[in-house]
Amino acid sequence: MAKDTVYSLDQVQLHNREGDLWLVVNGNVYDLSKFTELHPGGAGLLLAKEVAGQDATEAFFSLHRSDVLTKYDRLRIGRLAPDSDSASASATGDKSKAAPTLKKRKEYLLPVVGELSPVPHAEPDWLHPKLFSPYYRSSHHELRKSMREFFDSRVRDEAQEFELSGERPTKALVDLMGRKEWDIHAMRMGPGRHLHGKTLPGGVKGEDFDYFHELVVVQEMCRIGAPGYMAGLQAGMVIGLPPCLNFGDEKMRQKVLPDIFAGKKFISLAISEPHAGSDVQGIQTTATLSDDKKYWTVEGSKKWITNGHFSDYFMTAVRTGPKSLSMMLIERDDNVETKKIKTSYSASAGTAYVFFDKVKVPVENVLGGEGNGLKVILSNFNHERWVICCRIARYNRLIYEETFKWAHLRMSAGKRLIDNAVVRAKFAKMIAKVDAGQTWLEHITYQMTKLSYAEQSQALAGPMALLKYYLARCGREISDDAVQIWGGRGITQGGMGRLIEQHQRTFHFDTLLGGADEVLADLGVRQASKRMPLASL
Ligand code: HEM
């Protein structure tokens, strides 16, 4: 049956029973005869007389996400004749009201792969066709287009499936992201000489790649809405590789970088331990220097290591003396063992315990010099926190978008959720938070494009800590409001509210990772207090 066949409502109505069931959704005719028994929402609802052989658009959209239609496009057999559209728009028979509602839904509910969302505030303002931004050039726009197409069409389905199943991202995808034409792993490490000489997606020259390009890559990636899976996609690299980039010698760079950027090998940052979290001074993993001073022998264990379960390298903080902390690159061998830890987000992330049992590490693998571990760790904190900020800001917006759509679909007590003032008040808070958060993030990103790495550590450590604290608090509050609007679906895995459920289960990662909210808030205020000119009192 050709999919462009046009049917009248009378024709559709003839197919209204078990084994011969058609219905209309959004102007398209579906043959559900063989699907009725497989329907996750049950057969009974489809066979009800208001649904079977009728235009079920209203009923459909108050119970499904629009991507169900994309996924089940194979069931579509044709279109409803245009003159049937408004005549049959609602099974309630209220023709005057039904037509505009349907029109509106067509406009914003069917997402097009690679396109901008038409939902107001669902995209940051720099993507608004009528607004201006001082920060983004055409290369940022081109890169964004290319990243959106990539993540929408090649990553989203796998991400959604694996977020629930806990499988790690497929090798095929990780390899693809590492290919020359995409170079996504390398771009995620931010600007630097590792990108020089390359032409990146959207035609961006590696030398011109700046923090706004990096922001674009991170934020486009977040839209797939699968936090644990996303962590499985080389999050360990983002935090574990910088010491190698910034302190590694040429030999180490040549050995490690190409395989990681190609997606052939994985690295993770191994700092936290059962007895030491953000408190790095409490680290107990020790390294003893051999008599010939050629290698260190490492013993101890690490906990909550993102990607640890499948990492080939561990950028590890170890005690090399009672008062000496060092950072070293440890390659997996038979004396390194990893064991998965179940966390509240997806096992895709490969979060693990790492056990080092007398592992021999060449002295050349110490980064930044023996005893300089803290300096190496601190030098990376700003960038790590900034990446987390990019992620939270975009994820918060996604949760808002999903919820705003839902509030326009869901009918309760005869009206849409959005028609209730109490619901609109929640959206006022959400929109203010997502737009303010992004604006502050862009302001700090701009400073990063102007300051050297060392200057950033000086001038931005406090503001960055406060920004991360702010965005993570917003994430918590947005999650709370979203769940209240979604009701039971906000706490149900799978189905329409799946992103909301994921978020309310996982937003705490953002309130802890890269420094707990309380620690960062205090850091921001202490930094400000240090700059306080006493003469002004
Ligand atoms: C083209 C027609 C339809 C297709 C392809 C379809 C497909 C699906 C799918 C795939 C789900 C699982 C949702 C998910 O996991 O995201 C679902 C759930 C459901 N469907 Fe349908 N469906 C159709 C029409 C309808 C209609 C017309 C009704 C009601 C009159 C209905 C009622 C439900 C219900 C109650 C659920 C459970 C959703 C929940 O409670 O969150 N479906 N459907």
Automatic annotation (TrEMBL):
Keywords: FAD, Flavoprotein, Oxidoreductase
Chain ranges of the Cytochrome b5 heme-binding domain: 4-81
An example Gene Ontology molecular-function term: acyl-CoA dehydrogenase activity
UniProt-listed GO biological process terms: fatty acid beta-oxidation using acyl-CoA dehydrogenase
UniProt keyword Flavoprotein, yes or no: yes
Cofactor: FAD
Xref: Pfam families: Acyl-CoA_dh_1, Acyl-CoA_dh_M, Acyl-CoA_dh_N, Cyt-b5
Species lineage: Eukaryota, Fungi, Dikarya, Basidiomycota, Pucciniomycotina
Tagged with keyword Flavoprotein: yes
Superkingdom assignment: Eukaryota
InterPro entries: Acyl-CoA_dehydrogenase, Acyl-CoA_DH_CS, Acyl-CoA_Oxase/DH_mid-dom, Acyl-CoA_Oxase/DH_mid-dom_sf, AcylCo_DH-like_C, AcylCo_DH/oxidase_C, AcylCoA_DH/ox_N, AcylCoA_DH/ox_N_sf
Family: Belongs to the acyl-CoA dehydrogenase family.
Record's protein name: Cytochrome b5 heme-binding domain-containing protein
Any one GO CC term of the record: cytoplasm
